[in-house]
């Protein structure tokens, strides 16, 4: 039986890929993904059949994967980061109901929360919440409820999709809500282009984060009440008693 | 300047390691870690100096890393999963204040949330909270507040350290709290020994999860109100409108 391997490339799609992901890409004759990610791996795997659809055509891309696998060949469906975190894994299972003869395996990757945390220092040493500010598929009221709950319970908060052209003020709105529960000097961080050319990061207060410029390649971290800056890095202490 | 590379091995410490992590281990003459993790990589890197301390001696292990790096050689400090998620990264920065001449770099790995999700299906397609039930370093009241907040705001919840000998009933207590906000038939999953020999998983209702047997190698996932079972896998739909 041929299989679809839904494969996370990690943030940078090169060294941050797992050994397992690399082996999957070597094995599968067909690689399917959004154009931007395909372009990141095309040179490394020159002998493959690369197929793509434009952004927002996720359903078509999944169907394409099942059609190709139906021809009896293994298919790698690639995503940035982890295919299992806001990635294509869920949709593949949903559409897979129509293709019971094709197997599905998820190959995990480094998600932006892990990759971004490593750039900033160690912000995720304690309980954390991951929230996407994209309201394309989720009502804003639900996002707002989650932001408030995470802020009140003192989770470190990792924000995916902090803004886009249509949602320029969403991060500011989120920070405003969090400021009802946390101090303005709460340590925050943002990382842009994790693992790629032009990777950059900034550590700043929650108050200043409100007016920070972000885009769809930025991941934002809001510290908990214990998060501190040590030698220019963002660190949430775990609380080992004997330090 | 010599450096400490705080390196996540991923759940299974072999194919789920990143290419970058592998290169770091190849490069560093000294590898330090908890005995269990050292044993997982000893064969693959036979020419290294391996150093270790028993469990709970994390501070000693960090100091050992700085002492070795102080001798002018690069050191890999290895952890299971992601060094940046409940790992050693934070403590290394804290202790690093005393060793300003040694550089620190964090090399991310696949954490149990990513690795376990891939085994179960696609539970983390939407906002999620990661909570450790270990109250060794955190007051139980804080953990309880976080469980309640995450349950009420309909986060998918990923639980690390669900139980140990001393905390046999903690998962049951956590489920009891979550049942105040979620239906008994809420789809849940648990994964044991992710990426290692004896890997196993089970998908079950929140009501049944209350009485499930777990140990320190188990990661637990509690679905949100939309999470469903598709062909025996745990899937949280993202909500793509055009499906």
Structural key phrases:
five-stranded parallel sheet, 8 helices, five-stranded mixed sheet, 13 strands, alpha/beta, homodimer
Order of helical and strand elements of chain A: EHEHEHEHEHEEHEHEEHEEE
Strand order of the largest sheet of chain A: 3-2-4-1-5
Oligomer: homodimer
The count of strands of chain A amounts to: 13
- Largest interface, C-beta closer than 8 angstroms, per-chain residues: A-B, 78 and 78 residues
Helix fraction bin of chain A = 25-40%
Rounded mean pLDDT of chain A is 93
Question: Beta-sheet strand percentage of chain A?
Answer: 15-25%
Summarize the biggest pleated sheet of chain A.
5 strands, parallel
Unreliable stretches of chain A, pLDDT < 50, 5 or more residues?
none
| Helix-strand makeup class of chain A | alpha/beta
Distance between the termini of chain A: 54 Å
- The helix tally of chain A amounts to 8
The outline of chain A comes out as elongated
Q: Radius of gyration of chain A in whole Å, from Cα?
A: 19 Å
Give your account of this protein's structure.
The structure is a homodimer of 243-residue chains. With 243 residues, chain A is α/β, with parallel strands linked by helices. The first copy, chain A, is 30% helix and 24% strand. Chain A contains 8 helices and 13 strands. Chain A has helices at 19-27, 35-41, 58-70, 89-96, 112-120, 140-152, 170-178, 206-209; strands spanning 3-8, 30-33, 49-51, 75-79, 103-107, 121-122, 128-132, 156-160, 187-192, 200-205, 218-222, 228-230, 233-235. In chain A, the strands form 3 sheets. In chain A, strands 3-2-4-1-5 form a 5-stranded parallel sheet, sandwiched between helices. In chain A, a hairpin with a 2-residue loop joins β12 and β13. In chain A, α3 (58-70) crosses α4 (89-96). The radius of gyration of chain A is 19 Å and the shape is elongated. The model of chain A has no long low-confidence stretch (mean pLDDT 93). β7 of chain A pairs antiparallel with β7 (128-132) of chain B.
């Amino acid at each position: 039986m041929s299989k679809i391997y839904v494969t996370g490339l990690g943030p940078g799609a090169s060294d941050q890929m797992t050994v397992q992901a690399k082996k999957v890409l070597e094995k599968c004759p067909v690689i399917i993904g959004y154009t931007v990610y395909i372009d990141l791996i095309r040179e490394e795997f020159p002998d493959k059949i690369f197929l793509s659809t434009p952004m927002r055509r996720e359903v078509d891309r999944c169907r394409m994967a099942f059609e190709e696998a139906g021809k009896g060949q293994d298919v790698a469906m690639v995503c940035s980061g982890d295919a299992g975190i806001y990635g294509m894994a869920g949709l593949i299972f949903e559409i897979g109901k129509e293709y019971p003869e094709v197997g599905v395996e998820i190959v995990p990757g480094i998600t932006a929360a892990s990759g971004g945390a490593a750039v900033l220092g160690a912000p995720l040493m304690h309980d954390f919440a991951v929230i996407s500010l994209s309201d394309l598929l989720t009502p804003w009221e639900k996002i707002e409820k989650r932001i408030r709950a995470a802020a009140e319970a003192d989770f470190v908060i990792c924000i995916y999709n902090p803004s886009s052209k249509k949602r320029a003020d969403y991060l500011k709105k989120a920070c405003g809500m969090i400021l009802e529960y946390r101090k303005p000097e709460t340590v925050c961080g943002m990382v842009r282009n994790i693992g790629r050319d032009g990777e950059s990061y900034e550590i700043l207060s929650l108050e200043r984060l409100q007016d920070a410029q972000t885009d769809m390649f930025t991941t934002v971290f809001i510290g908990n009440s214990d998060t501190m800056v040590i030698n220019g890095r963002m660190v949430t202490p775990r609380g080992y008693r004997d330090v």
